[in-house]
Amino acid sequence: MEENILWAPWRMDYILGPKPDSCVFCLPETTTEDRERLVLTRGRHAYVIMNKFPYNCGHLMVVPYRHVSCLTDLNQAESEECMTLLQQATAVMKEAFNPNGINIGLNLGSAAGAGIAAHLHFQMVPRWNGDSSFMAVFSATRVVPESLLSTYDRLKPRFDALSRDA
């Protein structure tokens, strides 16, 4: 049997790198680390961030600032802003990537698949017909064809334009 090798050198940073002691979704008030953290836009109650370990190119998350674990814990303003940011991120995603579809989901609790169950976050994954191609057959492998910072630089101006228009 022929051996297939898939290089993903960025994963070594995750594997060997330090693991945070605090919640990765609890942001500092300052925006100086936003590019490094892949924060695309900030609202009053929630923000949009790229997933550092994406399922697909352009995988985004909408996250309330407040550290809550359940949808019912959000107040009205937080709920409304999360929905507004999901709508805006959908528009940006369609413009930037022209996907055939978008998966939008929320996993409540680790049993439901939440990787970080303590801080509620909505997942948004653009999808294209055949986007997994043959790779899904091999150990559930996914191919992300663009670097995170290239994707960030493509999306950030679009979110900035939405903020100016608001």
Please explain how this structure is put together.
Helices cover 30% and strands 16% of the residues. Helix 3 packs across helix 4 (148-165). The longest helix has 22 residues, at 76-97. The protein has one domain (40-160): HIT family, subunit A, CATH 3.30.428.10. It starts with 10 loop residues before the first helix and ends with a helix. It is built from four helices and five strands. The model has no long low-confidence stretch (mean pLDDT 86). With 166 residues, the chain is an alpha+beta fold. The protein has a five-stranded antiparallel β-sheet. The protein has helices spanning 11-16, 34-37, 76-97, 148-165, and strands spanning 39-42, 46-50, 60-64, 101-106, 122-127.
In short:
With 166 residues, the chain is of the alpha+beta class. It has helices at residues 11-16, 34-37, 76-97, 148-165; strands at 39-42, 46-50, 60-64, 101-106, 122-127.
SSE topology:
Blueprint (H helix, E strand, L loop, with lengths): L10 H6 L17 H4 L1 E4 L3 E5 L9 E5 L11 H22 L3 E6 L15 E6 L20 H18 L1
Antiparallel strand pairs: 1-2, 2-3, 3-5, 4-5
Helix pairs in contact: 3-4
Binned, the helix content reads: 25-40%
Proportion of residues in extended strands: 15-25%
Poorly predicted segments: none
Output the radius of gyration: 16 Å
* Helical stretch tally: 4
Strand order of the largest sheet: 1-2-3-5-4
Question: Mind describing the biggest β-sheet?
Answer: 5 strands, antiparallel
Question: Which word captures the global form?
Answer: globular
CATH superfamily: HIT-like
The structural class is alpha+beta
* Total strands: 5
In the CATH hierarchy, what is the architecture at level 2? 2-Layer Sandwich
The separation of the N and C termini measures 57 Å
Reading off the top of the CATH hierarchy, the class is best stated as: Alpha Beta
pLDDT averaged residue by residue: 86
Order of helices and strands: HHEEEHEEH
> What's the number of domains?
1
CATH topology type: HIT family, subunit A
